[in-house]
């Protein structure tokens, strides 16, 4: 075995010949440096995690604020869409009176139920009971005389237990037709 010859003034030779307390101090410093590097990575990763968590919390807060704004705007839009203009309400009131008179002109025809759903485009559900002849004539008169009402759905029911026919009409109120008629006159 060949012996390694070191210069007496080289750093490694000085470390080998150094007293024990200096070797121990050097070993502790070296161990501290080896442990400090991974610890610095851990601290850096924790800082990144903390920054990411704060950023995520800020984004969630902004998203909640935007959702609240959207919900508020949606609620306002629904309120606007469901509010009935006073002019429309007055037109519906006179239309309702004319409709009652038209039904009364047929002796064998009765209104069982009349239900308005008020929104931007009001809907009328009208349940009639009477003879099929009177119902068919009423529907024909309805389409001629009440141009502001559009028939959306017509359901007829007749049972053998009842001599009368029941009709359910779903009608859409449209102001456009009224405005067109006024413009034509």
What does this structure look like?
The chain has helices at residues 11-17, 20-82, 86-104, 132-145, 175-184, and strands at 109-117, 123-130, 149-158, 165-173. With 185 residues, it is α+β, with helices and mostly antiparallel strands. β3 (149-158) and β4 form a beta hairpin. The longest helix is centred in the first third of the chain and has 63 residues, at 20-82. The termini are far apart.
Number of strands: 4
Number of helices, counting only DSSP H or I runs of 4 residues or more: 5
Sketch the major β-sheet. 4 strands, antiparallel
* Beta-strand percentage range: 15-25%
Low-confidence stretches: 177-183
On the 0-100 scale, what is the average pLDDT? Answer: 83
Radius of gyration over alpha carbons?
Answer: 44 Å
Order of helices and strands: HHHEEHEEH
Q: Quick one: overall form?
A: rod-shaped
Query: What topology, given as strand order, has the largest sheet?
Result: 1-2-4-3
The computed structural class is: alpha+beta
**Helix fraction by DSSP (H/I, runs of at least 4):** 55-70%
Termini separation comes to: 125 Å
Question: What is the topological layout?
Answer:
Elements: H1 11-17, H2 20-82, H3 86-104, E1 109-117, E2 123-130, H4 132-145, E3 149-158, E4 165-173, H5 175-184
Antiparallel strand pairs: 1-2, 2-4, 3-4
Quick synopsis:
By secondary structure, the protein is an alpha+beta fold. The chain is 61% helix and 19% strand.
List its traits.
alpha+beta, 4 strands, four-stranded antiparallel sheet, rod-shaped
């Amino acid at each position: 075995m060949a012996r390694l010859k070191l210069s007496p003034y080289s750093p490694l030779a000085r470390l080998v010949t150094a007293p024990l307390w200096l070797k121990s101090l050097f070993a502790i410093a070296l161990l501290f440096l080896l442990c400090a590097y991974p610890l610095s990575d851990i601290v850096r990763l924790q800082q990144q995690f903390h920054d990411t968590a704060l950023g995520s919390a800020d984004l969630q807060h902004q998203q909640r604020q935007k959702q609240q704004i959207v919900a508020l705007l949606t609620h306002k839009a629904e309120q606007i869409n469901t509010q009935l203009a006073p002019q429309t309400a007055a037109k519906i009131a006179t239309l309702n009176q004319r409709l009652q008179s038209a039904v009364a002109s047929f002796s064998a025809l009765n209104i069982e139920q009349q239900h308005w759903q008020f929104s931007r485009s009001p809907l009328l559900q009208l349940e009639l009971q009477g003879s099929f002849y009177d119902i068919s004539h009423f529907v024909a008169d309805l389409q001629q005389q009440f141009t502001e009402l559009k028939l959306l759905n017509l359901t007829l029911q007749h049972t053998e237990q009842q001599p009368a026919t029941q009709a359910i009409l779903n009608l859409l109120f449209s102001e456009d037709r009224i405005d067109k008629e006024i413009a034509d006159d």
